[in-house]
Every structure is written in structure tokens, then in C-alpha cells.
Here is the input.
Amino acid sequence: MYRLSSDDLIYGYINGIFPMADTDNTLYWYSPDPRAIIPIETYHPAKSLRPVLNKKTFEVRINTDFEQVMRACALPRSEHDGTWISEEIIEAYVDLHQMGMAHSVEAYIENELVGGLYGVALGAVFFGESMFYRVPNASKVAFHYLIEILKKQQFELLDTQFINDNVRRFGAIEIPRTEYMKLLKQGLQKKVHFTEHIMEHSFRNQPD
Here is the structure.
């Protein structure tokens, strides 16, 4: 029986497609047109987030509990919602994480995971997948530090797949799929590292 593999994920991302599971766990591959991206250089934290950053409410960690971040993202947002993150998808991305290609940014309070996000890094492209929060602003702080990492490591493209209100608040825009594929090809040719030259496990959030 076919099972999604880390190799499938890599092949998909470099060709502009990504998997999502249906309600019966059937996998489908998507390549939206238009495609949603978040311009890395033009991102600025919302004014309402600055006091949260200044208070240093959250401890931000990188790659310390990737699987639990995925599982938290997989939980339905409400009793009426489903999830596109199946057990098969979790297993494949955890394998990709163990290969050093999938990463999580996590927000903690007193060692409790209260928010975070995960995605895939290939070349100078970061493919954002999903985020969650259990405490207000936790995912926003995690995203702020994702952008800080991408800027520091000189990433060129942040893919967020579909446009919605959640990503619009971070500055997401839509571009034609043809333009996205050009940016993707360009970004994949550059070699950068998500965690090189940054503290790999944790750091206290600092004001912008």
C-alpha cells in the first residue's frame, strides 16, 4: 500500500506542489493558481505585538518538539472543522525533519508548549505549512521569529500556499503560479541553512 514518504515531499516541493489529506485521509496534491506568499523583507510586526515582544512573555525554541507542533496543528479548530494533517502526513514530515529539512518554531511559557508553526526549508525557500496557539499571541510571536530567522539566513521566498485572513495579517499576497515557479526555481538554486549561525534550541524573544 502506498505511503507518503519524505522523498515524495521533496519532489513535490521542488515542483511547486504539496499534499493535503481529505476527511477520509485520502491524499491529494495541490498547486494553487494564484499562489500565496509572504514577502520576507516587507514584513513588520503589528503594533499590538510589540508590547508582547517587549514583555518577553514567551520563550521561543527552534526544533525542540517538531512532532508535537505538528500534532497540535492537526487538531480541529472547532467541533465543526476537519483537519488536512493526517497521521500519514505527520509521519512523512517527521522523517523530513529528522533529515534536517523540516523545522518548527515554538513558543513556551514555563516549559509548556503554547504555540508554534512548522514548515519545510529547501534552498533559500521556506514552505510554511501550519501554525497553532493555545495562548493569545503565541503563534504570532513564533511567526515573528520565523521571519527573523529567514532574514538572517538570507532566505528569498516564504510560501504560504493559499490566501486567507490568517496569512493576510502577516502581509501575504497572491502572485500568478508562473511567477511563483520562477521565484521557486531561483530560490532552490541558492544554498542557505535554516539553523546555521543561530542558537539551535532556544532564545528569549527580544523587541524588534
